[in-house]
Amino acid sequence: MLARFALIALAALGSAACSTPGQPASAAGGGGAATQYLIGPGDEIQIFVWRNPELTVTVPVRPDGRISTPLVEDMQAVGKTPTQLARDMETALGAYVKSPQVNVIVHGFVGAFSEQIRVVGKATTPKALPYRRSMTVLDVMIEVGGLAPGAAGNRARIIRRADGTTLEIRVRLDDLLNDARMSENVEMLPGDMLLIPESRL
Q1: What contacts 2, CB < 8 A, 6 or more positions away?
Q2: How far is it, in rounded angstroms, from Cα 46 to Cα 129?
Q3: 184 in the Ramachandran plot: left (φ > 0), alpha (ψ -120 to 50) or beta?
Q4: Which of 81, 98, 119, 161 is most open to solvent, judged by the fewest CB atoms within 10 Å of its CB?
Q5: Domain spanning 2-34+114-196: which superfamily?
Q6: What is the residue extent of each domain of the chain?
């Protein structure tokens, strides 16, 4: 199975090399717009304060979406980019430190709940994944270990919510994984749900 995924991944790279950078892997995927990583609960982040090692810490983002650091007991982190959080930390620390310079580095990626990709149904390991820019359905299937026995891969669909509407995008996973049919390698968007039904047989 791993060897098959490796061959398909190589085919995907070759296909990407022939396409226009920044375009979705499939027209059905839509989007393709640049996105920025948003911090989510469970992320592990390093707050680096230049020339203030006593204020430099690595902390988890709590379930309530906040972090606690020296001198700043409660700071909202969820839903912000690392750069936005760094600027907010500079503002908060400015009451104690002259002209603080802060960098925020994310070590453990989970992502905002609304941004996660969810895989439901007959995957080997159904789970939620942090969204990454240019992520495709093949990337998702590699992350979850492929299809589980009894999966109806060619009846899978992506549920996408955008502008108050819900779209269903059909994707033939068996054709993608077994035959390397790269036309099925749809680009994923933040918040997508991949549903893999069970075979009716």
Answers
A1: none
A2: 21
A3: alpha
A4: 98
A5: Outer membrane lipoprotein wza domain like (3.10.560.10)
A6: 2-34+114-196, 44-108
pLDDT tens string for the chain (201 positions)?
Answer: 545 554 455 455 454 444 333 333 433 444 444 568 889 898 999 999 999 999 999 999 999 999 999 999 999 999 999 999 999 999 999 999 999 999 999 988 888 888 899 999 999 999 999 888 899 999 999 999 999 999 999 999 999 998 889 999 999 999 999 999 999 999 999 999 999 999 986
In 94-189, DSSP assigns E strands to 102-108, 117-121, 128-129, 156-162, 165-171
Locate tokens 């007991």: which residue? 73
Do the strands 193-196 and 117-121 form a parallel or antiparallel pair, or are they unpaired? parallel
* Strands 165-171 vs 193-196: parallel, antiparallel or unpaired: unpaired
H or E stretch covering 122: none
Mention every residue, 6+ apart, whose C-beta is less than 8 A from residue 151.
Answer: 121, 122, 123, 173, 196, 197, 198, 199
> How many CA atoms within 13 Å lie on the side-chain side of 86?
18
Rg of the chain's alpha carbons, rounded to an integer? 20
